[in-house]
Amino acid sequence: MDNTFSSYKIDDRSLIAFIKREIHNLALQLGFTPHRAAETDIIVAELTSNLIKYANGGELLYRAHLDGEYNAIEIYCLDNGDGFENLTKIMNDGYSSSNTLGHGLGSIKRLSNDFQIYSMKDWGCVQYVKICEKPDYQPQALQSGLNHMEIALNYPGEKVCGDGYYIKQTRKGFQIFVGDGLGHGENAYEAVQMAIKAFRQSIEFEPAELLREIHAKVKKSRGLVATIVSVDYNAEVWNICGIGNINTRIYNGLENKTYTPYNGIIGHNIPRTLNSTIVPYKKHQIIIMHSDGLRTRWNLNDLTSILKQNPGIIGAAIFKENIRGTDDATILVGKII
């Protein structure tokens, strides 16, 4: 199943029927019952019509996703409208601000398996919706470790994404890979997938050594940039090493630090000396990694209470404000719990 999202700019009501049909057909392909697909239609109609009525348009991202044993559709809805002042009030089923029937956001929450929303006055809104084929399915909450979400988007017009990410569990903890194949399209996709395969198969813990292994195995590709993070639970440390322009930032409360990668291209030329940066690993930290499809001059402290939100909402907020639109774009956000 492809991990990338499809994207539609919604600036005209005529697009709503088309997008509803696309997502409805996807739901049926994933094994949703006709009734569950019809509930999906209601959610999509509400999200898209709200973009037109209240935000003068916005963007809808969606993908098929396997959640545990069940297929799901994930949707992000992003806008630069006026925002909401009282989210608690508008979440009530039956509330309406425009003298309509008032199905509203309350119905989206009721019909979906997960619904999250973040808004700020004069900033706009980001919404996340997960619709599983089984209406009452609720995944088990993590007791400890990494709670994470990712958003990946192809360069406009491309069928594959030249960015890639992978998270794997190790005997010491876990490892994260985020990479960006040079350029975009098939050759970039091939390079990053070769790197992910090497990453998955390796038993090496140290990110610097892992990058050397990957470098040796992708020399026949176009090449890529990548950062790898390894967490050791017992030592309570992050080990971070990157080559090229993957942006990596860790938040400790309101304080944050960006970790600078080495110059080079994996598969072509990498530094002779590579050393991992060691950082204390603590509960409640947030790690954010993204490709250069997103601008780097963002600050979560500018967004009221955003650090309390789930990883998907945090990623979507950064994505909304910083997407360049000139390359593939990927962001991974993880919260330590």
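The above is record 1. Record 2 follows with the same two-line structure.
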Amino acid sequence: MNRFASLIGLGLLASTSMTGIAVADVTPEAVIAHYADVAEAKFGDALTSARSLDGAIEQFLADPTDETLAAAKAAWLAARVPYQQTEVYRFGNAIVDDWEGRVNAWPLDEGLIDYVDSSYGSESDENSLFTANVIANPSIEINGKVIDAGTITPELISGTLQEAGGIEANVASGYHAIEFLLWGQDLNGNGPGAGSRPATDYSLDNCTNGNCQRRRDYLGAASDLLLADLEEMDANWKAGGAARLALEQSGVAGGLSTILTGMGSLSYGELAGERMKLGLLLGDPEEEHDCFSDNTHNSHLYDAVGIRTAFSGAYTRPDGTELTGPSLADLVAARDPAIADELSADLDATVTAMEAMAERAENVEAYDQMIATGNEAGNATVQAAIDGLIKQTRSIERVIAALDLGSIDLEGSDSLDSPNAVFQ
């Protein structure tokens, strides 16, 4: 007998699950299927919000004013909410992880794309395309080969510019490329203020900073490419889609391991470590995730919400509707109620700490100010969220043990495991 099926056979399940689902439905197979259903909903919502963003960008390009630029920015911010909640699917699902860099890679050397302030510098020992500025240059040289960039298309961005020269910092596509094109550089360091690109950078009648037609072409192409990438992933999670099939074919133990790998790796190595602790150790505003828009607090918050959803099975869609079903929380409660309660409490505590960080960002100071060296109150607010992520990872590890899933490698981070290495 499958060790997970034995949960029912031994009478270990309560009459109803933690979410009120009938006992017969709380099987490992049902939990995995619901996890895939939530993925389909989340990626569908990310696609829908990206379509709204694309529409706002089209309106902005048709009439580039301060008002239409503000509307495009608002649409970008709204689009981040459902997308960030999908990141828990990245680790463990190879199809998602292989694709993610096309839509959410960071940090980026923005000089590849457009003009930058002189404080940015003019060259880099690590990146020959540090200030290539493809918007200003119809041809650029990559690894000794002259590339025709006369027409800016989605294909040029994805096939030639993205990670050009094999350098990860050459991020040419995705949310953050669009963010830079809407906001421009944030030149405020650890001081208040986000990027402040003028709408006239896209005006054909009153062009500022030159190359406005090519800049318009780039923004439109980048938005089209984001839609195409999200359409691909949305299809991958529908019935018969590649991601859903891969999950189904991994079996019960493989499916449960996938869920927990995503939760633990995003909690610890990626979010607590690379996205948060590293910036806090360095006090470096360039280490914030949404660095042009000062939206990092929300991106971190919705990552944490997404992790909690992977356990609870409860997802709130942008229109306010609730999607619930058989959850990992139900399955763990049947095996060890104390551990289920422990992880549920930890996940709630982390979201609460993230909400406190977001409230501070909205009312006191932005995230890049919070991580500044010497800002004790701001540092403490960020560290509280990091501590929550670390604590919930330890509980995730106990869940892995309780479900007899063997050894699962969760992502680590030098920022957490060997902080001195960060300064070497």
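The first strand starts at residue 139 and ends at 142.
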